[in-house]
Design a protein that fits this description.
One of its GO terms (molecular function) is aminopeptidase activity. Keywords: Aminopeptidase, Hydrolase, Protease. The protein is mainly alpha-helical. About 45% of the residues lie in helices and about 0% in strands.
Length: about 170
């Protein structure tokens, strides 16, 4: 009777381990699709040395952490540049690098086609001049000069946004 009880517990623990590994695989896949990456040791050092606006102290009781969970996951799914604490917990980062969206973008494409057709219609019929006339009285206020400080800007940071509205349409 006791032996049967132990064997059922062992099989239950194996099932739980399988479910945990499946959950971690799904979690890492969702995080990757959401453009989150596992923070490396170098990135964590940079984050700790930087002055962030939100800096919450986090205390982790490492005695209560399951060290087998991530160890067995990374044994089956090896990753490069894991932090030194990857057997206990994982920190994801997001915010730099290439942000990619994968989709058909049906509604933005339809909106672009409609707006281009509408602009063409207004131009051909001459209604564009009626709706979008220039103001007769120019604004005489002196615009205040705005100074933009670029002292702390990072020259290696480059952002390119590709918009559907700016793309050439073709069939």
């Amino acid at each position: 009777m006791v032996l049967k009880n132990w064997s059922s517990r062992i099989s239950l623990l194996k099932k739980v381990d399988v479910f945990e590994q499946d959950f971690l695989a799904s979690l890492f896949q969702v995080m990757e699709k959401s453009n989150f990456k596992i923070a490396t040791d170098e990135e964590i050092e940079v984050a700790l040395s930087a002055q962030y606006r939100l800096n919450l102290p986090i205390v982790v009781n490492e005695n209560k952490l399951d060290k087998r969970l991530f160890t067995s996951y990374f044994a089956k799914h090896p990753q490069d540049d894991l932090p030194y604490f990857a057997d206990k917990f994982i920190i994801f980062r997001r915010g730099f690098g290439i942000d990619r969206l994968n989709s058909y973008f049906i509604m933005p494409k339809i909106n672009t086609i409609i707006s281009r057709f509408w602009r063409c219609f207004l131009k051909v019929t001459g209604l564009k001049r009626l709706f979008f006339r220039k103001r007769s009285a120019p604004i005489t206020e002196d615009p205040k000069s705005i100074e933009i400080s670029t002292d702390n800007s990072d020259e290696s940071l480059y952002v390119e946004r590709i918009r559907i509205e700016k793309m050439k349409l073709r069939l």
